[in-house]
Design brief:
This protein has 386 residues and is an alpha/beta fold. The radius of gyration is 20 Å and the shape is globular.
């Protein structure tokens, strides 16, 4: 439904996680019998959670641990891990920076050139541990880095930008041919980010194996403030899921969508699946893990941009091990731990035994849902009132 926001100008209403709630149906299920597995092409994952390709979240050790727990972590080929032989020492400089200096220091650190030999080295380090290896690149380096990654043994290649479309106009450089990249690489290719039905459909038609959904919702991202663009994640996910379903009916090929960013707590993750996603990509929630390289700090992917930074460094502190955050047992009552357990319990309460059924549960518009009856928690800044 569209509304007039002025004379002859209509605007569509869009919804984020805090605007909606999920409605239980006629059935409840034992949480231990809920299946949350999903696939990228023929690669199956026990956990539908991907760690985002951010330097404060994923390094080689983190990727290995995430893989062993049944999830997937994406290593950023544009980041510190491929610019420096000893990335831990460089990250410590970012962690130690004063808030006023953090962005400037990050910009300076990322001026160091990417070293192609380190791409292969990092991938081989992850593969040596026997887990699935996923790496990411921006579009302009995707063709070159994709080949290097594949030759080094990577299992999945991710192409990410703030906004990605099939058609890109420039008189200064050649347009990236996603269809060519997907055809030449034998490994699955995921592309993002987008938030609309039409762009999702066009990207799927290039042959991609997964689509990242979300522009600017991340906790360390400032793109929405700097650029004024984006669509709240519930609406974006619903629209992109509709494109996925139409494409599947048309071609018989299922391209999973992945809601990327904006989910601070387990309830948000549950709502993302109800909106139609097949998996979620999260950053700040996993940056709280003891194993995360940022040691309680997290910064946006576009923070290093030398001309227009669209991210910032935030302090989120460490709260537990990666296993506790993903699988529990939770020691905190705010939904930041045992994310998978919360998802299974939500699905069980809604009567959805798998992700496909979760995508069909009833959603209602409920903007005051989280605060109804929570006056004491809010006043005391505990639980849901933090």
């Amino acid at each position: 439904m569209a509304f007039f926001i002025g004379r002859d100008r209509e605007a569509r209403k869009a919804y984020g996680f805090d605007d909606v709630a999920l409605v239980p149906g006629l059935l409840t299920i034992n949480p231990n019998e809920i299946d949350v597995a999903w696939k990228i092409r023929d690669i199956k994952f026990d956990l539908p959670i991907i760690a985002s390709a951010m330097d404060g979240v994923v390094d080689v050790k983190f990727a290995i641990e995430m893989g062993k727990l049944g999830g997937l972590a994406v290593l950023n080929l544009e980041g510190i891990q491929t610019r420096y032989d000893k990335p831990d020492e460089i990250i410590q400089q970012i962690v130690a920076a004063a808030p006023a200096d953090a962005t400037k220091i990050i910009q300076s650190i990322y001026k160091e050139p990417i070293k192609e030999e380190l791409i292969g080295k990092r991938i081989k380090e992850i593969k040596k541990a026997g887990v699935i290896c996923a790496v990411s690149s921006i579009p302009k380096r995707a063709e070159r880095f994709g080949q290097i990654a594949q030759e080094a043994g990577a299992d999945i290649f991710v192409i990410q930008a703030t906004v990605t479309t099939v058609h890109h106009v420039s008189s200064e450089y050649q347009e990236v041919n996603f269809a060519k990249i997907c055809k030449e690489l034998k490994i699955p290719v995921l592309i993002g980010n987008c938030v609309t039905y039409d762009v999702s459909l066009e990207l799927m038609e290039t042959g991609i194996d997964g689509l990242l959904v979300g522009i600017g919702p991340g906790s360390a991202c400032t793109s929405r403030g700097v650029l004024g663009i984006g669509v709240p994640q519930i609406t974006a996910t619903v629209d992109c899921a509709a494109a996925r379903d139409f494409y599947y009916k048309k071609t018989g090929r299922y391209v999973p969508i992945i809601t990327d960013g904006g989910m601070s707590y387990s309830g948000d993750i549950c709502k993302a699946f109800a909106a139609g996603t097949d998996a979620v990509m999260i950053g700040s929630s996993l940056a709280r893990a003891i194993e995360a390289p940022g040691k309680g700090f997290h910064w946006g992917m576009a923070t290093p941009d030398r001309y227009l930074p669209r991210g910032t460094r935030i302090q989120i502190n460490t709260s537990g091990t990666l296993e506790e955050i993903l699988l529990g047992p939770a020691k905190i009552d705010d939904g930041s731990q045992n994310l998978v357990g919360a998802l299974k319990t939500s699905m069980a309460s809604l009567g959805a035994k798998n992700i496909k059924e979760m995508q069909l549960v009833e959603i209602i518009i409920a903007p005051d849902f989280k605060h109804e009856g929570k006056q004491f928690q809010k006043a005391q800044k505990i639980g849901m009132g933090k």
